[in-house]
């Protein structure tokens, strides 16, 4: 299923790869420009200040492979 987010009324969209045979425990958030979120955890500046911690590189690679 492909759709154009520019022409939709979707403001935020979460994508989880375990729904299409990818790894569990990782995901992506699409947020339309101008959207606002407040961080739930505080610490480092990862993910534009939304969450602290180190990126899960193997999970990200598995997410990309599942998308292919």
What do you see in this structure?
This protein has 68 residues and is an alpha+beta fold. The protein contains one helix and two strands, in the order E-E-H. The chain has one helix at residues 57-67; strands spanning 12-15, 28-31. A two-stranded antiparallel ribbon has the order 1-2. The two termini are 14 Å apart. The model has no long low-confidence stretch (mean pLDDT 83).
Between the first and last Cα atoms, what is the distance in angstroms?
A: 14 Å
Structural category is: alpha+beta
- Strand order across the largest sheet: 1-2
Low-confidence stretches: none
Quick take:
The chain is of the alpha+beta class.
Please tag this protein with its features:
two-stranded antiparallel ribbon, alpha+beta, 2 strands, 68 residues
């Amino acid at each position: 299923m492909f759709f154009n987010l520019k022409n939709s009324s979707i403001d935020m969209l979460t994508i989880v790869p375990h729904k299409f045979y990818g790894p569990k425990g990782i995901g992506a958030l699409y947020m339309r420009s101008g959207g606002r979120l407040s961080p739930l955890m505080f610490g480092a500046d990862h993910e534009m200040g939304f969450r602290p911690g180190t990126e899960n590189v193997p999970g990200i690679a598995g997410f990309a492979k599942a998308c292919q």
